[in-house]
Amino acid sequence: GQNIDQPTEMTATEGAIVQINCTYQTSGFNGLFWYQQHAGEAPTFLSYNVLDGLEEKGRFSSFLSRSKGYSYLLLKELQMKDSASYLCAVRDRAQAGTALIFGKGTTLSVSS
Amino acid sequence: DTAVSQTPKYLVTQMGNDKSIKCEQNLGHDTMYWYKQDSKKFLKIMFSYNNKELIINETVPNRFSPKSPDKAHLNLHINSLELGDSAVYFCASSQGLTHYEQYFGPGTRLTVT
Lengths: 112, 113
Hints:
The complex is a heterodimer. Helices cover about 0% and strands about 60% of the residues of chain A. Chain A is mostly beta strands. In chain A, the strands form 2 sheets. In chain A, strands 2, 4, 5, 9, 10 and 11 form a 6-stranded mixed beta sheet that branches. In chain A, strands 1-3-8-7-6 form a 5-stranded antiparallel beta sheet, with no helix packed on it. Chain B is about 0% helix and about 55% strand. The chains are: A mainly beta, B mainly beta.
């Protein structure tokens, strides 16, 4: 089976840096994804890692260590609009094919 | 301009009824999905279709029946609705079985009373 763990809630202030961790266990790992979901809206794609290392995209970066079953999403220069739920998801060939298996999400609150 | 659209956005109905949710994507994608997000915001895959063929059918009651009339559409029909079916249902699509980015529709909030 699979198990994806991430913190339930995090808080931070504008301009700060926050790191959201995600650990996973899969049988046929085939990629890790981060999605952002604002309240009442659809998830939107943020990043994708399939090889170890850091992927940077503007203020957002995502890191993967396959041997440790670990990823993090790093958000820099936080803005109020970054208040949202951040979903870690994995693709596992052994289960669900190309569909995504999501963690329960981390609700990030950014205050001024 | 909407990439993945769903109708209706809200659906309120009584237990025992049958209802359908429609999904359309104009991205030219081959693969479409249905996900369910419960009250605790947990998003879980239900079905996956590729080129109108069912690829995945997770542990979902057979009251739920997806139908894909063509590659751009994946509808979800639900029979004999139960209180526990209340959730937000998201349709998504991706370019193919190996393409990584999935685009989500706006969701359909189903409330069963």
